[in-house]
Structures are given as structure tokens and as C-alpha cells.
Amino acid sequence: MTCHFPRMDESVQTNMVIKSSSIVEDYEVCWRKSLGTGVSGPVRLCTKRNTGEKYALKCLLDSKKARTEVMLHQRCCPHPNIVQIYDVYCNSVQFPREAVARSRLLVVMELMNGGELFDQIIRERHFTEKKAAAITKQIVSAVFHCHSLNIAHRDLKPENLLLKEKSEDLQNVTIKLADFGFAKEDIGLVTPQFTPYYVAPQVLEAQKQQRLERSGLKTPPATPYTYDKSCDMWSVGVIIYIMLCGYPPFFPETPSKQLTPNMKRKIMAGEYRFPENEWGVVSGVAKNVIQRLLEVDPVKRMTVQQFIHHTWLLGEEAPELALLSPAIMQDKDALNEVMNAHAQQLTVMRTPDTTFQLKPLKSAENPILKKRLKAH
Ligand SMILES: Nc1ncnc2c1ncn2[C@@H]1O[C@H](COP(=O)(O)OP(=O)(O)OP(=O)(O)O)[C@@H](O)[C@H]1O
Asked: Domain Protein kinase, which positions (predicted)?
């Protein structure tokens, strides 16, 4: 028996089908095996009974938000750089330590066996700008597809970029975008949602305006501030920046999981640098791409349509020199601390490979680098 998604939102239409039959009729679920954990709990492994094929299973408490996530994710499928959804069930499930069974959406997705993008970068022995460009090309292809459908992902971050397979060489790996938990059709005003290190300036501005309006210090504008596709482009800029140097463009003076006022100010002023120690080996074209993506004014910021045709993505002129980023990113605790306010809820990541020599860093203002210098 199947039931169709009710029309939750006038702007969201889908032919998506939710099965109300029990998932265990079709799949064997490995409830104890977690592939990774997010705010909605662990993503589990399951096996299709009639084929023996393995999939990932995300369990979401049934709600309007969860249904919107699944609908928008489904609308962006299929695409070679977006994690595919195969089946969705609405079942009543009771987890250990729960007093009663609760209605849940069980989302059967393509299994991404290669883990998260940054874990693989850390393992790379010779990570170059050329490889970073090849990775970016795949990310941009996913974003282009979403934006073409008028859907903004709004939570583009390394944890949501998964690799299809484990591989010795990142250049041969397929990267796919996951987690449409914050995705929205790009229309009108929405509640600011973000992970601090990837938050775009206009989101902070929107938040500020909303605060002023709530406190009565300002009358609401006729045209609302929007949280749109350009936020995704900002996040892409942050991801490229981190790939090329190993630390984020905006960071507080002292490590903090929260978005500090100082960091907020830096984001809104577009205040970041390209320190020579790590950026000396990076091309001017790459820096220019980052500048166009981290542009404070969303109107001037590079769009995905402009970026997809950028020659940097071809990697033809990118230097083959080894970047310092894998070594710097090895201090994953420090990176997560300053990068992601959600880090505590995410999966315990793999132990980094320490078999290769870290390059010495002479001086650093960045807290991640400072911490590394102290530790050595
Ligand atoms: N298709 C998949 N295959 C393998 N692992 C996956 C898959 N989807 C998600 N994971 C793992 O589970 C983690 C959590 O997944 P996801 O980000 O979708 O959950 P969430 O609860 O929405 O998380 P967040 O806290 O980022 O909002 C991912 O970071 C990843 O490690």
C-alpha cells in the first residue's frame, strides 16, 4: 500500500511516493550499524532483500520539515553528484529508550562508501590545486543542478559532501551532495539557518534586521531580505578556501564552536587574507575565484551559472605543487572546533593517517595553526 505526500507547501510539488508498508518486508535494516550521525540521529545500513544490494537509511521523525527535506532532495534526483533516494517509507518505529513508537520517514539512499570529503583530503599524500579544482567541479555541478531547479541547498559544508567509494586518488572519485535538511525553494523570506563557518553575510544581515524588527526598533521592510542561492555560492567559496589551505577564511580569535561577534563582523566585512605561507603555492586564478565567491554583496557574488564555465574548474593551468592543507587539516579536532558548531553531533571521524611528514610552519595567526605550532 502506498500513500502520496500530502501537499505541504503550495510551492512544492512532487510525484514522490511514500510507502506505508513495513520497510522490513523489502529491506533488512542493520539498526546497530551507524554510517554517520547528524542532528536527526544515525544513518544506518540496510540491504535490499531481493537483490542483496546495500543502501544507507536515514530516519527522520515525520514532520512537515522532514517531508520538505525528502521532497526537495527527491526533486534534485537523479544527478551524478547528488546522493540518490530510492525508497521512502512512513512507518511507526520505536527506538531503544523511547517510551512509545513514533511515526518516522525512512529514507533509503544510495550508499556512499567513501566517507566524507575532508577525511579523504587528509589522507592525500600529494594534494594539489588541480585536484581541488576537479573536486570543486563536481560540487559546482550538483549546485548548478539544484539552482536550475530553483532549490537552494543552504547547508553546503564538507560533512555533506560524500564520496562514492574509497580511493587512493581523489581525482578518480565521485563526490555527491547529501543532506537536504535545510534546502528550500529559493523564494522570499525564510528563517536564517546556518552552520557558522559557512554562513553568508546577507544571512547575518537578515538576522540583524529581524532582531531589530522584533524589538520594535525598525519597521519591517516592504521587500524582505532573502536567503537565496547566493548563500550556496558563499559556502562553495569557503569550502574551496579550506581545501586550498587547510583552515577557514573566517575564524574567531580564540577557538569557539559558536559564531562569535568578532567572526560575525569579519564575515560581514569580507575580512579574510591569503597568508603567504600556505597561499604562496596557489594560483592567482584560484584566489580570484575565492574573492568572487566570498564577495559580501550577494548581487555581485559569482553565480553558479558563471562559475560552471570558469576555466579554473578545468584545472589546466592549476599548479601541480603540493598544498599544505592535508597536513593542516590533520588536526581535525581544532579544525572542527573552529569550523562547525554542529561538530559534536556529527560522526566520530576516522583517525588521520600520520605516516607522512608535516611541513614545518614558521609563524601563524590562525588559531588552528597556532595550536599545531604549540603541539610540535
Ligand atoms: N548516503 C549515505 N551513505 C553513507 N553515509 C551517509 C549517507 N548519508 C549520510 N551519511 C552519513 O551520515 C551523516 C549524517 O547524515 P546527514 O548529514 O544526512 O544527517 P543530518 O541528521 O541531516 O545531519 P546534519 O547534522 O548535518 O544536519 C553524514 O555526515 C555521513 O557521515
From this structure: 29-313
C-alpha to C-alpha distance for 168 and 187, rounded to whole angstroms:
41
Give Cα 343 to chain centroid, integer Å: 12
- Going by the DSSP 8-state scheme, the letter that residue 360 receives in this structure is P
Closest-lying ligand 1 atom to the alpha carbon of residue 181: 22
Nearest CA among 325, 323, 322, 295 for reference residue 307: 295
User: Do 161 and 116 touch, CB atoms closer than 8 A?
Assistant: yes
ipTM for this prediction: 0.97
Whether residue 118 contacts residue 158, with contact meaning beta carbons closer than 8 Å, is answered with yes
Q: Could you list the active site residues?
A: 155
| CB-based contact 234:195 (threshold 8 Å) | no
Beta bridge partners of 87: 108
| Residue in 30, 58, 173 to alter for ligand 1 test, most ligand atoms within 8 A of Cβ | 58
DSSP string, 43-78: EEEEEETTT--EEEEEEEE-SHHHHHHHHHHHHT-S
- pLDDT digits over 146-185, tens only? 999 989 998 888 889 999 999 878 878 999 999 999 898 8
- Which has the closest alpha carbon to 181: 9, 60, 304? 60
- Burial of 326 (C-beta count, 10 Å sphere; 0-12/13-18/19+): buried
Name the pTM for this structure: 0.80
Stronger pLDDT, 87 or 223, i.e. the higher one: 87
- Locate 39 and state its grid cell: 542532528
- In a mutational test of the pocket of ligand 1, which residue from 163, 165, 179 has the highest number of ligand atoms less than 8 Å from its CB? 179
